Structure formats: structure tokens, C-alpha cells
Prior knowledge:
338 residues; alpha/beta; Alpha-Beta Plaits; TIM Barrel; 2 domains; 11 helices; 14 strands; 33% helix; binds phosphoenolpyruvate; binds manganese (II) ion
Amino acid sequence: MIVILKDGATKKQIEMVEKKLIELGFKTHPIYGEIKTVIGAVGDKRDINKNLILLMEGVEEIVPIMRPYKLASKELYKQPTVIDVGDGVKIGGEKLAIMAGPCAIEGEREFIEVAKKVKNAGANILRGGAYKPRSSPYSFQGLEIEGLKILAQARRETGLLLVTEVVDTRDVETVDKYADIIQIGARNMQNFRLLKEVGSSSKPALLKRGLAATITEWLMAAEYIMSEGNEKVILCERGIRTYETATRNTMDISAIPVIKEISHLPVIADPSHATGHSKYVPSMAKAAIAAGADGLIVEVHQDPPNAMSDGEQSLYPDEFVNLMDEISKVAQAVGRRI
Length: 338
Ligand code: PEP
Ligand code: MN
């Protein structure tokens, strides 16, 4: 529920209300506006006597949050959230977040080469998987800790921020040390233990939509991370399973305006996993930006035919340069920039 305080409620009154809410078992999220202060109170306490709060000094009204997700809902935070990733990179503002790099880190020399190329093309965040959630146990599983060290080297050489995936609760602490953004992949969107673990991190989380997840299930997954204290969640639409086989997944472009309507969280798009074919990536990237996405995550590889994973959907560095040029025009048309 949302506790709305009266205009001019004193600091003391606000503190007392918050204290009472905590006593009743709620987690509190005060939002100090210029005129009004409100306190989001989250917890499973349907049977409390609301008058215990309503009749306190300084309280104007109590409004229930109707959606099952609370912290992720726009009912609580009305303004879009802008996530500060560090080094001046913000996700959710006018400037788009462009994350690019190979699906997996395959070796230091290749990775740093491609990192420099995506940086020169204008990407502000470098992607690369060290732990790979492969559909087959016989496929390349990633370089793991060695991959993380290569990521750190790429950061030193390019200054780019890093996004990388974690697939196991036991690795969250380690990945946390290297990553600027911790990715939770589509296959783990409902791995609740992993969500909670990432919820204890101070690093922003990139939460990909599950292969067959509804938007509500996706936002409930965000709620898991947020309810542990990490409210820096970036959503990522990466296509969902449908009966269509022409593309790897079906990119749900409409999820972008839907998310914008019901949540304050930033949302980016992954046209690479959504389509599975590099030739469709530019169209879907432009469509996502036109639909209001706050950025993109795109797979770029030096030599896609020989990539150890997701080569078919990876762009050559030159193609990524062209993509940046094309999306900058779309961005401009919708009041954004790259
Ligand atoms: C990836 O980003 O390489 C990946 C595995 O993505 P997803 O979880 O969306 O399939
Ligand atoms: Mn991939």
C-alpha cells in the first residue's frame, strides 16, 4: 500500500509513520516529493488494522497498490527510473544505453579487439558471457573465471562498462566483483534463489524476459530482486516462444509500451536473441527504439561464422557501425539520442 502524508507533514511525523509500518511488518520505501511525501509499504499483511496508520498525525490517505508487483509498479514510483551504472552512464534517460559485444568471451585477443570496435562505433557498455546457459550440455559453457578476468582487462583497455551473465547462485559474489551490470538470462528468469541473490547486490541487474513468460511474471521476477533491496533493475525484451519458426523467437515489440505504461523501470531490447538471424537485427533494433526502448543489447563478433555461440545472429563489427548510424536517426525522431 501507499501511505500518503499531508502537505507539510513534519519530519518527525513521517519518521513515526515509517516506524509504525516497520513494527507492523512492512518494508518501507519513502519517496520525498517537493510537496508531498509518500511511503510505499510492502509486505504480505492483508489483515492489519489500517486505522493504526490512517489515524496517525500527518497521514492523509492510504491507497492500495492493485498490481501483484509493488516496487516495480508505476503506482508507487510515478516517474521513470533512471539507473546510474557509473562512469556517467545512465539507463532510462534521453541517451540510449547501447550494450554490444560477443555472445561469449572466447579469448583475450579477440575479445579486446571487438571491444575496441564496438566502443569506436558508439556503444557505451560491453557485453560478453563468461558463464553460458547453453541449451545443450555438450556446447561451449564459457571460460568462467578466466572469462571474467578478460572482461576486466577489456574494461581497463577501453573504459567500457561491463554486462555479464550469472547462472548460479554460487557465482554471484564473484561476478559481482567484475560486472557493472549483472545479467540474469531468459532461462533463469524464474530462478527465484538466483533473483534473490542478485537482489542483495548493489550492482544493477539486467533481467531478461523468460522464454515463455507473461509480462506480469517478468515484473514479478523484477519484484523478487527489488524486494531484497536492489531496486536497480533493467528489463530486457529478448523475444518469446510462439509457433513461428522463421525467427528464433518472436520479438514482442508491444511489451515495450506495455512496460512503459505499468512500470517505472527502464526496458531495453535484444534483437539478436529475439530474431536469431543477423539480417533481421537492424529492423528490430530500430523498431524497439521507435517503440520507446531505453537501449539495446546486440551481439557483435569479429568472425560470426566461426563464433563458439550464437554466430548466426551476431553482427560483424562493420555491420554494427551501420546499425549505430541507422538507430541514431530513429532515436532522434523519438526524442532520444545515442
Ligand atoms: C545471452 O545474452 O547470450 C543469452 C543467453 O541470452 P538469453 O538469456 O536472452 O537467451
Ligand atoms: Mn547469445
